[in-house]
DNA sequence: GGTAGATATTTTGTGCTCAAAATATTAGTA
DNA sequence: TACTAATATTTTGAGCACAAAATATCTACC
């Protein structure tokens, strides 16, 4: 009756690493979210809120859209975050006369102060452990993540039939660890 | 080699890699979210929904809590996802006689079918590129991520020795001293 | 039997997240 | 001036995500 064996491996043929990579990413995402909630109890700021404040401090006054890009979030999302931060008095929004479509965001004194007392954006445990790594190891992890980002953000590689294994991106500086 | 932990300027002193790592993670998270939304238009399932279905298929009937663990989400979150999947007729929930606290979740025929026609959980572009890597490269990325997960999930490493700067004038927001 | 504590799930409340639509403003053009 | 298109932000609607509280059930010990 089952007309075809429907070999479940046909499209499920994922390399074990593929599953594993996804699983790791989910766990990282979750760990960050959990830490964000702990942050709230220690300094009344969530992770995304703190990230916005930090970029604001780093880049100075800037329009919503550019802030959104800086923290890798959509403008719509940032609007909500800014609402809450403004409500808390940590920043100010104003439309410049020159172009009233824009909204320039500025850190307030209170915002700068909150930032000074805020813990790091990543778990303290992670921060400690990461800093304990050799510069080479840090760099290696950093590069690995960037590689994943690049593969992730690269869209669809067209209709290109991908069969070209071509060559390894050959990482030259493999040794120093 | 081991850089002595000089008193690191207390708060500003993040290694450049630290910033970069966080930025990469944010971008990865975002890329996954964006793909999840594209998924909806192609198969009416979001990423988390698809992830739940897949685990369900992989592990068979199982209680909510175990499913939550399998997808690295909290039970509360999974409840909402299950609501929608059940509504769509892709799975069934029932409380076994033996223990009516539990809720056993089972894939329905429609669920199994939807799964067969669903695209991969990661961007197609990523999947293609990742598969094009050598086994060694895949493994390397996989390991790097797992290392980060481990550092991320390791809590606080307490007062553990190892690299304590001895004094660390902890002004960390531990309330008013 | 009855009551306390443990276990499993759902509900509640808040925030993050996005696309798409709505709004407001500016610039270009007839 | 009026009309159109482009730009910048906010609103809307839906889903994800969690902790904490609420609910229901089971187990253990009296």
TrEMBL record, chains A, B:
Transcription is among the record's keywords: yes
Q: Which GO terms describe its biological process?
A: response to stress
The keyword Transcription is assigned to this record: yes
Keywords of this protein's UniProt record, alphabetized? DNA-binding, Transcription, Transcription regulation
Q: Name one GO molecular function term.
A: DNA binding
Could you tell me the superkingdom of the organism this chain comes from? Bacteria
All copies of the HTH marR-type domain together span 18-150
**Where do the TM regions start and end?**
none
Annotated InterPro entries: HTH_MarR-typ, MarR/SlyA-like, Tscrpt_reg_MarR-type_CS, WH-like_DNA-bd_sf, WH_DNA-bd_sf
Which Gene3D superfamilies does the entry mention?
Winged helix-like DNA-binding domain superfamily/Winged helix DNA-binding domain
- For this entry, the protein name equals MarR family transcriptional regulator
Q: Which organism is it from?
A: Elongatibacter sediminis
């Amino acid at each position: 009756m089952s007309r075809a064996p429907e070999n479940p491996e046909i499209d499920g043929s994922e390399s074990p690493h593929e599953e594993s990579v996804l699983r790791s990413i989910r766990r990282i995402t979750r760990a960050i979210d959990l830490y964000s909630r702990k942050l709230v109890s220690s300094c009344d700021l969530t992770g995304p809120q703190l990230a916005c404040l930090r970029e604001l401090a780093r880049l100075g006054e800037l329009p919503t859209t550019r802030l959104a890009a800086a923290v890798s979030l959509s403008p719509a999302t940032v609007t909500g975050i800014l609402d809450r931060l403004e409500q808390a008095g940590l920043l100010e929004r104003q439309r410049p006369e020159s172009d009233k479509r824009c909204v320039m965001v500025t850190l307030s004194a209170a915002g700068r102060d909150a930032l000074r007392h805020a813990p790091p954006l990543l778990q303290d445990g992670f921060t400690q452990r990461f800093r304990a790594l050799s510069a080479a190891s840090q760099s290696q992890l950093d590069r690995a993540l960037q590689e994943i980002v690049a593969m992730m953000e690269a869209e669809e590689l067209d209709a290109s039939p991908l069969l070209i294994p071509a060559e390894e991106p050959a990482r030259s500086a493999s040794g120093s660890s």
